Amino acid sequence: MTSKEAATQHAFAAIDSRANELIALSQSVLNDAEPGYREHRTAAKIDKWMLRAGLSPRTEVAITGIVVKIDTGRPGPAIAVIGELDSLIVPGHANANPETGAAHACGHHAQLGSMLGVLTAILDDSVRSALSGSVTFMAVPAEEYIELDFRESLRANGKIEFFGGKQEFIRLGEFDEIDMAMLTHTTAEGQPGVIISGAHNGMVGKTAEFRGVAAHAGAAPHLGVNALNAANIALSAVHAQRETFRDADYVRVHPIITHGGDSVSSVPSRVSMDTYIRAANIDAIIDGSRKVDRALRAGAMAVGGEVAITTTPGYMPSRYDPVLADVYRRNAEPIFGKDNVRTSGQRASSSDAGDVSLLMPTIHPWVDCATGNGHGIDYLVQDYDMAVVKAAKAMAATVIDLLANDAESAQRVLRNFRPEMTKERYLAQLRELRSEKTYTE
Fold this sequence. Notes:
Layout: H1 3-17, H2 19-30, H3 40-52, E1 58-61, E2 65-71, E3 78-84, E4 88-89, E5 102-103, H4 108-122, H5 125-128, E6 134-140, H6 148-156, H7 165-171, E7 180-182, E8 185-187, E9 193-211, H8 227-241, E10 252-253, E11 256-259, E12 270-279, H9 282-303, E13 306-313, H10 322-336, E14 341-350, H11 353-357, E15 362-363, E16 366-368, E17 370-371, E18 380-381, H12 384-415, H13 423-433, E19 435-439
Parallel strand pairs: 3-6, 3-7, 7-15, 8-16, 9-14
Antiparallel strand pairs: 1-2, 2-6, 4-5, 9-12, 9-13, 9-16, 10-12, 11-12, 13-19, 17-18
């Protein structure tokens, strides 16, 4: 048995010895969900786990994030294993917070368990002694791009610059000394196993406030300017753009009205709308954003109102690393079964893991272990052994494969990787995507 094989066996034994605790922690997070940049109780649970393991994690990174590094004592590449702290807001979900509606309708609670499973493995002396380099564990806030007004208030108060947690980690320098990264998500696609993702869409967020003139809706509507009519016209104009989007660009635009008026007896004078523009590449995102702006402006102009449009930088299109994915595949197959490890192409959803992937080799596999619709009230992880324990083992075995034998596999991954952009160019690109404009004619 090679030292790598022995280390993998010790890692699996360490994970198995705490499997029930890892699952219990994940379920505790499930039952106490918190949305992005508000995950204080969730972060405290991760911090407590790490402190009990004898570690000294750094806390309050990008408000609620937690970071701890385990160094093998031998030079080599640095790997980040990531878990996401936040939830969605999905009132009606079986595990939703009754006051806030926060719910883990995407499975981030299981990510935290699998991340801590890898941590448990790397803390084993027999594992760590076989490796070169370091492993940093990051519990990151705010992957879900929601509550844009709240995040704008955080930005205005200087607490964040970007709305995504990994974006803030990049800005703050948390990835400056990291060479490659990984995390495992859950999904519900009806074929138990693991999916190695090829790519995600990128996106920008957009908030529009339509402004009209209030008037008595029954007695004098002619004296008002109806902001809700402006929004409805804008929605129709957005729909009219859809045939102009190329199929190859995977463009998705999905607006919602977040405030539709103040009183049924008053002509609506203020109506707010949020939307994303998602696409597989930056050019398509920018093109879609311009078309949506035209549609929003057209709605306001049609009724003689005005519209204030704020565009916020969302997430970059991903380019997950195929060489690192191959290392993961050969370690996942003995755990999930060769026929249960499959590959997907472009996914129309978005993740700030895509931002990390532009800077370093990154993978974002999905464990198919849930039922229901992702982000829906019925999304539930059903197989926690798969979501937490097997996911942890696959990542731990991958880390060992990468860093064993003087980190030979990791060095091969790095030799074959060419970053899409530098950190400086990445941050500049995000800032260029932000705009605030008010149109009155």
